[in-house]
Every structure is written in C-alpha cells, then in structure tokens.
Amino acid sequence: MSRRRYCLAALLLLLTLLPSLPAKADDAIIGDVVMTVIPVTAFAVAFFKDDAEGEKQWLRNLAANQIITSAARLGFNQTSWGERPNGHPYGFPSGHVAFAGSGAAFLSERYGWHYGLPAWVGTAYVAYNRVDNHSHRWRDAIASGAIAFGVGKLFVTPENATHIAPTIGPDWIGMRWQRSW
C-alpha cells in the first residue's frame, strides 16, 4: 500500500476523533479516547494491509480478551479486590486497560515491535490515567495488561509466520513446512 493511502487513513481517523473531544478535555475523556483508538487502529492496520487473516485474528483476540476480563471481573467483584478506590464495583481487572491492551497485543504479535511499541505506550497511558483518576489500583491495570499480553500470544500469529508440522498419510509419514508471506 502506498504511503499516500496510509496518510489519508490516518487523517480520516484523526478527523473522526476530533468532534468527540471537548474544547477543554479532562483526563478521563482523553484516556477513554486513547483506549478506543488503539484497538481501532489495530484493525485499521490489518484492513489497510489487506490482511484478511489478521482481521480475523484481531476479532478473535479482542473477543477472547474481553470474555476473560469480564469473567475475572465477575469472579472478583464480591471480594475486596473487586472494589475500586472510588468505592464502585468491578474494579479487578481494568476493562479499559484490557481493551486497549488487546489492540497493543495484536499489533505487537502480528506486525512486530514497530507497531506494538507505540500501542503499548498508549496502553500504559490508559493504565496511568485509570489509576490517577482513582478508578483502579495498579494491580488492576497490571493484571489487565498481563491478560491482554497472554491472550495476544495465544490468539495472534506473526504476519510472516513459518509453521512446521508433522503429517501422516495412509502410506507415508512426513513434515509439512508452511510460510506466510
């Protein structure tokens, strides 16, 4: 894809986000926007790279991440870990950090650290923002990041992955080598 198309896609994404920011945005709103931008950008990268398999892996990664995080939140809600610093329920683990982390994990696993590092920095900002606004404790944010990282390792394969697998046929045994380009 040409550099011009990437710039156009980035500009369109920026223009769609600008109306959602108030003139004097507070930290919580900025954290919410960054939380949303990371997974949306991850899908956009797969889309603009014409990576159909990447789009499927993005969806599986996001769904698994949110299911695991939601199950953990339900499980911990009745414990002391489930209470947020501001007194509200469903504190452990952080859903915001998990959502942002799913996009960061996808980008880093599928396309490498060049894409993943900025996304993880954005996820760290979301984690800091949630703790700073007294919506979560650090343990909540770290647990969510760990869940996102682990789910990404399980559900996302690198774009140029090489697979070697044993194969067994009716009259033969062998190895199959497959390379994604």
TrEMBL record:
Signal peptide as annotated in the record: 1-25
Gene3D superfamilies assigned to the protein according to its UniProt record, in alphabetical order: Phosphatidic acid phosphatase type 2/haloperoxidase (1.20.144.10)
Annotated keywords: Signal
Ranges of residues in domain Phosphatidic acid phosphatase type 2/haloperoxidase: 83-156
Domain of life: Bacteria
Coiled-coil ranges (or none): none
InterPro entries found in the cross-reference section: PAP2/HPO, PAP2/HPO_sf
SUPFAM superfamilies, sorted: Acid phosphatase/Vanadium-dependent haloperoxidase
Name of the molecule in the record: Phosphatase PAP2 family protein
Species per Swiss-Prot/TrEMBL record: Geomonas terrae
Lineage of producing organism: Bacteria, Pseudomonadati, Thermodesulfobacteriota, Desulfuromonadia, Geobacterales
